[in-house]
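Chapter summary example.
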Amino acid sequence: MNENHFFVTYFKRNMGTLIGLFLLCAFLSITTDSFLDSGNLLTVLRQVCINATLAFGMTYVLIIGSIDLSVGSVLALSGVTCVMLIENGFPFGLALPASILLGSFVGLVNGIVIAFTGIPPFIVTLAMQTIVRGFSYIVTNGTSIVSKNEMFNSIGNKYVGFLPIPVIIVAVIIVIAAWFSIKPNLEGGCTP
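The structure predicted for these 192 residues follows.
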């Protein structure tokens, strides 16, 4: 009964959004030839992959009642770091983990400051967002940077079968996130 009540409440609250999305998709399907084209759908999937990846991490932050405003800037810093390392001769196999470690370190600093100072997460992560974004601008002189490394570029541009690699990466993240979400229930640790 509780599960049914949850879904009914959810659909009542979000019915307007769902109807709007349905109408928009129907309109675009009727007025354009390419909206339901497989190429367009795969492009849309590829474009949402970065946001989806960030959303899975943010979901857990929000579940524990916190917030992190710095994730976009930390993502930018990690990307800038990875590309700059690659373009300065570092192998891709070292540059990628180094950039991930840098992003993790920034998150660790956020966590330590929040845990040991009592400053609200909103303030700490807002400050870190500004610091990290400013550092990224300084390092790149405020311009876009591009990698010519084939391995780096293949992550966003290549396919495995008919699926773009970013879509496969997000699918793996979904499976991992789902596993960690349901594992306590399977072991009897949490009940809905």
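To summarize the output: The mean pLDDT is 89.
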